[in-house]
Amino acid sequence: MPTNRIRGHQYPTTSGLAQLISALPYIDTHAHIELEEFDADRDAVVARARHAGVEAVLCVAVSADSSRAAIALAERYPEIHAAVGIQPNCCAEAAQGDWERIVAMADHRRVVALGETGLDRYWDFTPLEVQRDYFDRHLRLARQPGLPVVIHCREAEADLMAMLREAAAREPLRGVVHAFSGDAATAAECVELGLHVSFAGMVTYRNKKFRRLRDVAGAIPADRLLIETDSPYLVPHPLRGKQKRNEPANVTLVAECLAELRGVSVEELSEQTTANARRLFFG
Ligand code: NI
Fold first, then answer.
1. I need a labelling partner for 9 at 20 to 30 A (CA). Which of 29, 37, 50, 108 fits?
2. pTM of the predicted model as reported, rounded to 2 decimal places
3. Which secondary-structure segment (H or E) carries 160?
């Protein structure tokens, strides 16, 4: 809360109170708050998000164990919802029976999405063939309960799009490509295939190499745009380098940056992205 410094003491201001009352709605559509990075102060992290206007956080799992942990958080905090799945870099470590655990957890009432899944050629933790196999499993599993899919893609756009085209030919796709880092043509095709596109802290970075990404973000149709933190990773500007760990409250910084580059008010951007997230995950 903003404070006035009067004779060295700090008093809350009325504008601080007004800010609390009129906090805009946000949904952080991708955060790994089940990870141990948040074990020491998870209650405070959730409280700060609430204070910032974050009405929902999608806790996205990376393994069978983290899926179980995400569900436990979703049962404990009303604004947390779970996505269950095995992240491409974690597939090689999956134990026998882990996939069956994901399938069983997909029916849980607090689970609103599958993932994260997808393909990653940047890291070399899981052979691409194994990643493809798990991505395909997630895409097929999503069909029966009608869950949207949370998709990760790092330097594997061509492989990913080929699989998405195939899946879309079987049945309409519902989901999001998260922390999008691809080019304009890939983004346009994701939208064409029915997917949403989500942006994280990278879009706020001032380095030249992210200028192209900001152009891509500016061109996404308003009704397909989502925001996220990818906590604990990707701390947005201007906290980058100052805060070691990202957290859901910082999704407001992603929203402010996107509003600016799209030439709309923060109010409009927060309302639109929140409506999009509600429709996709809670519709
Ligand atoms: Ni993630």
1. 50
2. 0.91
3. helix 157-170
